[in-house]
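Protocol step 4 of 6: record predicted structures for both targets in the notebook before any analysis. Target 1:
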Amino acid sequence: MPLQVSTESPSTIAHSLKSSSSTSSFLVVYASEIDGRSWCGDCREAEPLVDAKFVDRAEVVKVVFAGQKDEWRKADNPWRQAPFSVTNLPTLIKVTGKEWERLVEEDVYDQKKLDAFVGPKRS
């Protein structure tokens, strides 16, 4: 089952990630879609691998879209701001306690790097 897109505000998502009771929480930031297809080639490459990685896992995973090209490129885009600090798409953010780590662009669809970043499935 594909991951579900969050419609929560950036501030609500940040609060949720910071206060999650799970060991790690994740946020996937993709470029928005045009006619059902992301304008970002790296996002299109990453999506099936990210979906497969998180199927049947217990971690909190939220997916958001950073906007169309013109929205994404604006300095005030909320996903570019702290605590997200996204610089490139796609970005996978892992929050563990107070630590925010990022896997960015082609590293998101590098299976070995994705596996190492997400870690083993918890029982």
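Target 2:
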Amino acid sequence: MVSRARKGVISDWWWTVDKLLLAALLGLMFMGLLLSLSASPPVAKRLGIDAFHFVERHAMFMLPAIGVLIGTSLLTMRQARRVAFIVLGASIVALLLIPFIGFSAKGATRWLAVGSFLIQPSEFMKPAFVVITAWLFSESVRQPDIPCNALAIGLFGLCAGLLVMQPDLGQTLLLSFVWGAMFFMAGMPWLWVALLGGTALTGLTVAYFSFSHFSGRIDRFLTGAGDTFQVDRGLAAINNGGWLGTGPGEGRIKNGLPDSHTDFIFSVTVEEFGIVLAMGLVLIFAFIVMRGLWHALREHDRFVQLAVSGLVLQFGFQAMINIGVNLRLLPAKGMTLPFISYGGSSLLAVAFGMGLVLALTRKRADSYSRGWAKPAGATAFAV
């Protein structure tokens, strides 16, 4: 037990961090490892590798992910901003290099090879982008002589453009939803909001007529024609599970799901553990999002409000898209279920993003400006 009387980084962290939020996040991570035991062995067997290959790699990535989650949550507000700035810069450089030295799979080039590992820079770019965008929006009032809103718009255009080049339209849409929500919460004029909405609709229309794989997914979702094998199998697995599931390891339909350990792990969850447990999983995701928004509502610092709101909305939107695809409520899109799906980059990047949420929502003394006023002697536009 950590005593309140003891002064130090760990003791201060323990008494200031949101323990309920931390417990929910760690619980999701361990549930992801458990569900990997159910979902990944059939995939490994089809590939002719050890049945627990993906389970072992998931566990291997989960340990550093816990370290990233806890380590990031130790940061002060200013340190969190600076770390996000470094991660965003490194991610943008990596995304610029991907067209030249990136690794391609399934018609997209999204990964960089680092030794025997594949890193997806866009996963790390997303949470860092949210924090820096929140900072720019909050500085637009504190520093009206600096075009912070224009910089935020330019940053969004740059990051969205790099994602479209891969192409990764699903992540582009996710980034756009979160940025649009933050744009609205920052109190931008309604004319700007309307222009943003019109631009988004125009972008979707252009993407539909420019990218055959994007239009194909939309058409298959709307008409049911074409190759819907994996979506159909995922929905069949959900129907087979019923309320209580078939039991751990007893699912049959999961054996024919190519991406049962990643995009369609929610379908495997329902098949083997039932709708009841799956609803519990959804409630944990909802609790994390609502807990983060509750913290944001109680904050007076504009940067913290926007950053925490953006990070938890990004977390929630990603989960909603993944589950929506499994339920055939949304067009098929390769997007992981946070902390649950297999994927080293996703696991580490989500841990980084939620670590930032824990860091920014810690109880802290009012040693910084809370609100819109610029602190006396503060350096203009300091990160």
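Step 5 preliminary note on target 2. Residues 18-360 form one domain. The chain has one domain: 18-360.
Proceed to step 6 after PI sign-off.
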